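Continuing the series of single-chain predictions for the mutant panel. This is the parent chain; the variants come on the following pages.
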Amino acid sequence: MLDGLFRPRAIAIIGASNNPFSIGHIVIRNLLEHGFKGPVFPINPKERHIASLKCYRSVLEVPDEIDLVNISVNYKLVPGVIEECGKKGVKFGIVHTAGFKEVGEEGIARERAMVELAHRHGMRLFGPNSQGAQNSDPEISAYANFTFVPMKPGNVSIIAQGGGMGELLKLHLHKVGLGHRLYCSYGNECDLTMPEILEYYGQDPGTRVIMMQTESFKDPAAWRCPRTPGLWSTRPRWRRRCTAAPGSSSSTTATR
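Parent structure:
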């Protein structure tokens, strides 16, 4: 289950900042302005308050349980951050930080080590080099993302590999008044995979249509013989709800 990613009860922003143009600040602003129903904990050892919220030096100092962290610190600091999150019992992390697989062999090694560290603590990672995730369900209202399109409740869910294309899909839905349900742009797909997210979308009762944009398939075999039981069989009708976005490298429908 990916409820910790899409239905978090509490979120910590690691790399939070008073710089209004920083990723950490924008994520906090989006969560507050869209009325996230749980507590938001800024994490920055150099600040006392960010956006009127008390700031903590580390997730280990936060008194409450944390379901989800948004990480936007330098890639050299990410392993230490994940170690602390593991000790805290955090189950899901969105890694906005770049400097991993997309930069070559060194980045690939860093990415593998990061995932191994997270898994030792029972933690799953989304990203890196990712925008984040959203859930417009009024009971959740989680805009754990650093983009700008207003979040209006709808029944169309979007999964995108490229953040730019994903944002264009959201913008189009917003302009025609449809809104969206769930959204994520997964970047490098180091751990949580597209098929896992699609399965979650397919089982979400508020999702009626799934829009997908992809540039490559990490594991093409998962589309024919999914390792996760139920990807195609648990809710067969979701197959008819998923189409690939025009302009992506795959322009065919994602229906088996």
